[in-house]
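User: Continuing from earlier, I have the next pair ready.

Assistant: Great, send them over.

User: Here they are, in order.

Assistant: Folding the first of the pair now:
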Amino acid sequence: MLKRFYELRNEIADFMQIKNKPLSVLNDLKWMCDLAFLVDLTGYLIDLNLKIQKQGHLDPGEEGSDSYETSREAALAPTGRAERHHADLKE
């Protein structure tokens, strides 16, 4: 949902302008950079969550350092996602 909002930000700004309810935050570069960073961060977290679940290492009842180490290694491994949004913002 957050990623979709980011992708449609220009259309949303246009729509709100037509309705005479402009969203000033969509013109604020700092706010947009924060939003882009948040979109990227949630993307990384989603990738990590899926990767850990796929490997079968996300068991709430499982305890011990082995589970932690495996999760840590999965977190540090590259996700393979090339698309990041914070890099496309320009002043």
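And the other member of the pair:
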Amino acid sequence: MNLDISYTNYIFLAIATPFALWSAWSDLKFMKIPNILVLLMAAGFIISGVILLPFDVYLWRLLGGFIVLIVGFLIFSLGGIGGGDAKFAAAMALFIDHNHIASFLLELSLFALIGVILHKIIGKLDFMNPITDNWESWRVEKTSKVKNFPLGLGMSAALIFYQLTVVGLV
């Protein structure tokens, strides 16, 4: 059964958005993206995708997610990103139409940059200290010589923006 593509995209928006919000919060608060989040998000696609997408498109998306996982782990092994970011990127890839990869990567780059800038600005605001002192991403920013950034924030924003764009709400 294949629903009209707009309905499919609305369903994907409804499935992906809660996981994206959870990922952004978890990465900011703990600097971790839980495995259960990634597994549930992937399961959401696996179940809905087999029902909503043509089977060949479904298989291509699974392959795309697997490729992103392999590339993500390679970048992780080189110290470029966290393991949770690599796994979350693979789960996100399942929800991206292959015809939109270039535009999504541009959106991802922009939202990651915006995320870095906003994260740094918020961390410098004294009135935010009661909040930021208890969140791992800002604690690490203020106390560690190694500067890590919660990439899940930008990744999540890009996924939500992409899904909203695909359904025509942005």
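Worth noting for the second one:
The chain has eight helices and no strands. Residues 122 and 137 are 11 Å apart (CA to CA).
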